[in-house]
Amino acid sequence: MTHGKKIILLLAAPLALLGSAAHAALHVFACEPEWGALAQELGGPLVEVAVATSALQDPHQIQAKPSLIARARNADLVVCTGAELEIGWLPVLLQQSGNAKVQAGQPGNFAAADFVRKLDVPGQLDRSQGDVHAAGNPHIQTDPRNIAQVATALGARLQKVDPAHASEYAQRTANFSQRWQQAVNRWTAQAAPLKGVPVVSQHKAFVYLYDWLGLKEVAVLEPKPGVEPTASHLQSVMAALKGTPARMVLYAAYQDARASEWLSKNAGVPAVKVAFTVGGTEGAKDLFGLFDDTVARLLAAGAKP
Ligand SMILES: [Zn+2]
């Protein structure tokens, strides 16, 4: 018995060393599932991706738990939305991680929103208006054209932080970008009947989606961004819809659907659950599935007959 154990121990050490040498993956820490999925697309076997949140969590409201801090501690690259989406938890998490490589301003810190044109940038900042984002609306992932721009920038960043594999990242990024562009063309054509369709949003989470497809937001169920809908605000939305009817009400998978369902029942329009990110619905298994599923749900609910 003792002898047998000794052999195992002796063998275990060199095997472990071999294992780590062969598996020198770049550690990516993604704040949201869409960026985890994108890093995986662009990095393939070269990266090991940890995602801080699931599609069923509100990305504005995450706790900087010790398990997340531990993940950030050994990260080579942090990939988040930025534009203040994670302002309530990411700065604390990065500070607690003690990881110099991934602090703001370092090559190991990538903020996707830096690489797209922001919508809803306030002319003047008034926090009394709710959870208003000074840097503009942070929910950029709902427009696949933004994903394309972020992919180009993230591909370049992967090359910078892991120069030994630069040509592989460049190749994977070019390949992804080509497939993505074809898919965007397909979705845009499929969604053409949605142009000009009036919709209600539960949270101001879809401005980029509307900008892409030409949907018209006629009301928002949250009285202020990030503030739960109140009965009186819902009544005023109902009143407004009498003059400007909407075809559907959209909510993100992570949200409590009750306000949207209430409006659906009272205004007689479908409530549409939008995956919002990878994993939000059964169909949103990856980035391509995210938009296949989103376009299909919108068409089912709101295309003109
Ligand atoms: Zn928001």
Helix content: 40-55%
The averaged pLDDT comes out at 91
Series of secondary-structure elements, N-terminal to C-terminal: HEHEHEHEHHEHEHEHEH
Helical/strand content category? alpha/beta
CATH architecture of the largest domain: 3-Layer(aba) Sandwich
Bound molecules: zinc ion
Shape: globular
Q: Which CATH class of the largest domain?
A: Alpha Beta
Question: Could you name the CATH topology of the largest domain?
Answer: Rossmann fold
> If strands are numbered along the chain, what order do they take across the biggest sheet?
2-1-3-4
Low-confidence stretches: 1-22
Main β sheet profile: 4 strands, parallel
Number of domains: 2
Number of helices: 10
**Counted beta strands:** 8
**CATH level-four homologous superfamily name of the largest domain:** Nitrogenase molybdenum iron protein domain
Radius of gyration: 22 Å
Taking the alpha carbons of the first and last residues, their distance comes to: 76 Å
- Proportion of residues in extended strands: 5-15%
